[in-house]
């Protein structure tokens, strides 16, 4: 009898153990290197804004996971197919992505910013000088000089025989006519030299009108070239991007934005590569996540002093950053709640200050 009871007891214990909770699944979490959201150290460890956030979520939920380094363009497709359970990094919440994967609440708002060549005072004046002395302005100056010579010759021919004229004689008379043409074009004239004949006055009247147009054209040409030399001061709206060569990271939201605007661009494997091309003069602007641009501007200032650029205060489109999760993942609700708890904590504000500084978005 005792043996039977013992056997039943052992069987019950065995069955009870069989019905216990199974070990939690190890989540495959995709990650891609893009500072300041995620950076892989030489030791193989990851850190960054998104990594700090994920570690906080894991601490609250007890999730088991492993990071799977994944190219940026493969993140969303792999989460949608189930190859990845979730992903962290700079992953924008877009309409197209939302159709195939679930997203947590956004943990950060950024925007598409622009980086432009950084010029000190001396190189800026060199650039302006190069833009000033170009073929277009040279053509305008030639037209003005040719007009002055032609008008001077006409005035001299019409006035040289007038007994009270100011343009009598050979080279002296022609020089006086040239002086008259110059002062008439650039101002109302000094009055020291004036035509005396009717035909001379008619030519002078026409030259006054033509001179105004020539001076206006020259002023417009100078203004246009100076503006081109200082392009970093006048890129303030999307339409300004049509006249500058833009670089972007391949397969990024910034690239999609430019494509929707119909603005041509040159793709690069990373934002850092695009910034190097900007510094080398291959392109004139780089569009990317504003937080990434500002972080790289700060980090490259010490590590890569040869890479010079500045991040403009202009932003082109707001972007929301979240965590993509495979459809119907059981842990989705736990992840979302933990994210919201982290986002409202003072520690999270300290994390943002650490990575982005006090003047963040």
Brief digest:
The chain is of the alpha/beta class and 361 residues long. It has helices at residues 2-18, 49-61, 75-81, 95-98, 121-132, 135-159, 171-186, 198-229, 253-261, 271-279, 290-303, 332-343, 346-356; strands at residues 26-31, 39-40, 46-47, 64-69, 86-88, 102-103, 108-117, 246-249, 265-268, 285-289, 309-321, 324-325.
How would you summarize the topology of this molecule?
Blueprint: H1 2-18, E1 26-31, E2 39-40, E3 46-47, H2 49-61, E4 64-69, H3 75-81, E5 86-88, H4 95-98, E6 102-103, E7 108-117, H5 121-132, H6 135-159, H7 171-186, H8 198-229, E8 246-249, H9 253-261, E9 265-268, H10 271-279, E10 285-289, H11 290-303, E11 309-321, E12 324-325, H12 332-343, H13 346-356
Parallel strand pairs: 1-4, 1-5, 8-9, 8-10
Antiparallel strand pairs: 2-3, 6-12, 7-10, 7-11
Helix pairs in contact: 2-12, 5-8, 6-7, 6-8, 7-8
Give the key terms.
alpha/beta; D-Maltodextrin-Binding Protein, domain 2; Helix Hairpins; 2 domains; five-stranded mixed sheet; three-stranded parallel sheet; 16% strand
């Amino acid at each position: 009898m005792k043996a039977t009871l013992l056997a039943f007891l052992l069987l019950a214990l065995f069955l009870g153990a069989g019905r216990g909770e199974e070990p939690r699944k190890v989540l495959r979490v995709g990650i891609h290197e893009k500072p300041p959201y995620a950076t892989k150290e030489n030791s193989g460890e990851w850190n960054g804004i998104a990594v700090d956030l994920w570690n906080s979520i894991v601490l609250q939920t007890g999730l088991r996971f492993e990071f799977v380094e994944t190219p940026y363009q493969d993140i969303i497709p792999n989460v949608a197919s189930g190859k990845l359970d979730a992903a962290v990094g700079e992953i924008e919440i877009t309409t197209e992505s939302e159709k195939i994967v679930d997203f947590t609440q956004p943990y950060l708002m950024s925007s598409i910013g622009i980086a432009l060549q950084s010029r000190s005072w001396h190189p800026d004046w060199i650039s302006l000088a190069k833009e000033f002395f170009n073929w277009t302005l040279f053509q305008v100056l030639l037209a003005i000089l040719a007009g002055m010579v032609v008008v001077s010759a006409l005035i001299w021919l019409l006035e040289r025989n007038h007994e009270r004229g100011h343009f009598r004689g050979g080279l002296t008379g022609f020089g006086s006519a040239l002086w008259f043409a110059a002062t008439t074009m650039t101002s109302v004239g000094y009055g020291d030299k004036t035509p005396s004949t009717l035909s001379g006055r008619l030519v002078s009247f026409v030259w006054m009108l033509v001179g105004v147009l020539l001076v206006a054209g020259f002023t417009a040409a100078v203004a246009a070239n100076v503006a081109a030399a200082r392009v970093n001061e006048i890129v303030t709206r999307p339409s300004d991007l049509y006249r500058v060569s833009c670089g972007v990271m391949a397969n990024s939201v910034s690239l999609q934005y430019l494509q929707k605007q119909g603005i041509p661009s040159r793709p690069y494997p990373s934002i850092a590569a695009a910034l190097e091309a900007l510094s080398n003069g291959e392109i004139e602007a780089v569009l990317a996540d504003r937080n990434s641009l500002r972080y790289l501007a700060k980090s490259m200032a010490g590590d890569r002093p040869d890479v010079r650029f500045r991040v403009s205060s202009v932003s082109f489109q707001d972007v929301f950053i979240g965590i993509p999760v495979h459809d119907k993942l059981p842990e989705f609700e736990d992840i979302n709640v933990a994210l919201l708890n982290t986002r409202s904590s003072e520690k999270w504000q300290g994390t943002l200050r650490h990575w982005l500084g006090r003047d963040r978005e």
